[in-house]
Amino acid sequence: MDAAPASFWNLIDAVCIINLDHRTDRWETIGSRLKTIVPEQKIHRISAVWGKKLPGYREHRLFHGITEEEALFWAGRAGCVLSHRKVLALVGQNGWNNTLILEDDAELLDNLDGTIGYLLARTILNTPRWDLFYLGCTPYSDRAVLIDREKTSQDTVNIARIVGPLCTHAYLVNDRSAEDYVNRLPDENGIWAWLAWHNSLDSWIANEYGNRTAATILGCYPNLVIQGQSYSDIEHIDITHNQGGLGGTPHPVQYIGEEQFVRMLHTPKYLLKRQLKIAAHYALGAYYHMAGYRKFSVSIENAGYWGAIKAAWQVLRQRGK
Does the record carry Transferase as a key word (predicted)? Predict the structure, then answer.
């Protein structure tokens, strides 16, 4: 007799929900939803880091010449980075093999059992040395390597190796990759300088890991978990996300072979395009005097738009040496 297929929730040792202490509304919403589908002993509420209370807030040079609204924006991003680092550290401390990390605005579009649950479990068990597995994200590139797929009553769910994701509201991490991330992310004493360069947690993951051939980052098409509509403590506005969720319109994707995927990551054209995108990002931030980009202000003050990109490109080249 064939053994029953593995269950997704049986493979998950812990579900960690990052939640600010004052956002009891979000905790009640996501907590009540999860308790209907996940064993309660696996659910862990993680008190999120409140960026305004971090040392150096409003004192670090990142904050020079910016408004209180802009400062709160960076405080939110700092809290996000350190909150995820806090969870990743708990993975190693508790000996969890597979951990699902959710932000408190995550909205599950499926119970992740049945056909979809078996697909996820099969991917976890059969994909060698995966690093991160996103159940919802905005893809960094429209090219991906198809790993597995299943047709459901709602949609065809595809699992693919992706270049690099944006968004951090729902992802799986294993014990090996969690340890690596903890060692590479800043603590509260280095967070402001880290943000001045890397901008955000998801940008760092996309740029530092998503473009490595040695890293295996997986994602779902369409998304199985989206960010629900609510007030954002980072953006300080009500946000509605359109993230290509299950049963809706997925993000466009072109599936390619593994060899073509690896070649793409190594082609000079792709590497140049990636670096120029990063350079343009920082150049625009400096050119328009956005918070966190003061390091470029002297060299680009009278340079114009393309001069700003050139100046940022030179800084990136020096940083890479």
Answer: yes
